[in-house]
Amino acid sequence: MNPVRESIRHVVENSRHVAVNQEGIESFVRDFDKNKLNHWLSISPFGINSLTDTEKLNFVLVLDSISFSYWGCPKWEIDYHGKIYDGAQGMMAALGRAVESGKPILDTNYLAGMGRKGLEGILRGNIEIPLLDERQRILNEAGLALVGKYGGDCSKLLEKADGSAIRFVELLIEGFPSFKDSATYSGKEIYFNKRAQLLASDLHHAFEGKGYGRFYDIEELTALADYKLPQVLRRWNVLAYSPELKAKILGKADLIEGSSEEVEIRASTIHAVELIKEMLKKKIPDITAAKINDYLWLEGQKKLPGGEPYHRVRTTKY
Known about the structure:
The chain is mostly helical. Helix content is 51%, strand content 7%.
């Protein structure tokens, strides 16, 4: 059982700032284009399939360890082979650039001892990426944990999970503190586990459900509560915000991490995707929350004129 799915019920039942609109869900399901179902790694500017299986495993681990909080003004961007990328695509490009230039970014010992200057060079762009120090700390943590507990071999972590995506998520949270993603709401702990679930989902896709990506319970993963998904769900009128919260987001005010407003946005996003999944199963039996998540995220990459901004929280969680 995924604790994320269970814990968010308390938030949804008591939410004061965010509501899930049933009519919006029905409209979304009615217009859902299954031909657009794809994984977010499909738009990676760096071809990860050129890597060996071990390199690919480590690449996805590094990527999902530090893929968060890209927003800003100006936005962090990088030039990769003559094209400009930002956000998660920029991170994929930056790591790919490092691999191509011979930087040992996929070596767990290198990660364990990586200094700020080393990571700054790898992620160099038009400006310094937000939370650079935190990204360095997280990579050091990952490298040290993998070297200390698994002999530097990430595949041993997967072996310990024994084919369970949920157990893999648990092991990440237990052994890598930066993957812990929860909040307190009305005295109860609410779990989101965004990046840990993302890593399980990405490995499943990158290895086509085989080898390092074999998880028998992949359908247990929930949507990944970030800042792009709720923006897209608002576009479809699936989520509705209180006037006070809407005014803050339109004004691009920073929300406080762990505030009731932020927790309600994240919990309602996951709940809405669960409702969408149940309705979609009638015409797409093998649909999962993870697939809907990627559908929404890819839709969120479209820059639409007049589109409302996403909520802003400076955090390493998403």
